[in-house]
Amino acid sequence: MRRPDFINLLKVLHCEIPDRPTLFEFFLNQSLYEKLAGQSMAAVQEPLERIRIMIKAFENAGYDYATIHGSDFSFPHGEVRQIATRSLNDGSVIKSRTDFENYEWPDPDSFDYSRLEKLGSDLPDGMKLIVYGPGGVLENVIQLVGYDSLCYMIYEDPVLVQDIFGAVGSRLVRYYEICAAYDTVGALISNDDWGFKSQTMLSPEHLRKFVFPWHKRIVETIHKFGKPAILHSCGNLIEVMDDIIEDMGYDAKHSFEDAIMPVEEAYERWSGRIAILGGIDLDFVCRAAPEEIKQRCRAMLKRAEKRGGYALGTGNSVPEYVPHDKYFAMISVIH
């Protein structure tokens, strides 16, 4: 075990060289949390106790933080099929101006954020919480409107689209403002998927009109508290990386995929301008032999050794289907 030291991750997020190789992961999965913490979650009903197990798991794996939702704030929507073939149109509830006006928009201030204070006594010395959101600006709008309907609505009623994005974006800004004020929180993740493998989900022009202004405000809000803002966004974002770095001002980018751009190439292209987090492709982690995984991870750490601004992890997260031995092969190279 390594003692957690959030300063190392801060150095990475500031594009500096950390004192030691540093890990970054958005989240793991229950079976890994249980194995790493040496505790079962099966009979645990109390939400804070589950989070305490996750904190212990992150600590034991060698992370300098644990990720967490700041509260139960979310945007209610319709039923979504939890199957592999689910559609981005599932759960939509806003199709018109009347639907928009009748929707019961949640108030971020009405939710309980006390976990961010109560968990302070459970954090080992040197460890911080990283708060992420209940989905992002675009994700929540798609959930409320439906992807197909949103694409039509942009052309048929752009004023309504602007109002929906404003209703979602302003509430997410407030959510991050509340969370960033807690001393236990060291950084915040704005998690919002924007792309497919080949392109962005909306045109770059429409992203710049409807989505990015709210992300800029989220970053400004987080920075107001002197804390780094991390973007987790899947998909092919090559056309908008300059927006992410120069306009929105994100400190770090997470989520990379070999089929779009290997993390090695992304690091060469953007390191020094924005921190690069994770990137060891999930498909590679699942299919490669443990020794191949170790070799690639060591090479990536070597690439960044004298330049900084990199933390090791998967390209996205660690879902249940990732074999445990492959995950442990990846993190073993920093121990």
Which features does this protein show?
TIM Barrel; seven-stranded parallel β-sheet; alpha/beta; single chain; 335 residues
Please render the helix and strand layout as text.
Elements: H1 6-13, H2 30-37, H3 47-61, E1 65-69, H4 97-102, H5 115-118, E2 128-132, H6 137-145, H7 147-156, H8 158-180, E3 185-191, H9 204-224, E4 229-232, H10 241-248, E5 252-254, H11 263-270, E6 275-277, H12 282-287, H13 290-304, E7 310-311, H14 324-332
Parallel strand pairs: 1-2, 2-3, 3-4, 4-5, 5-6, 6-7
Helix pairs in contact: 2-3, 6-7, 6-8, 7-8, 8-9, 9-10, 13-14
Protein model, in words:
The protein is of the alpha/beta class and 335 residues long. It has a single domain, classed as TIM Barrel. Helix content is 45%, strand content 9%. The chain contains 14 helices and 7 strands. The protein has a 7-stranded parallel sheet with strand order 1-2-3-4-5-6-7, with helices on both faces. Helix 10 links the parallel strand 4 and strand 5. Helix 6 packs across helix 7, helix 9 runs parallel beside helix 10 and helix 13 packs parallel to helix 14. The longest helix has 23 residues. It starts with 5 loop residues before the first helix and ends with a helix. The mean pLDDT is 96.
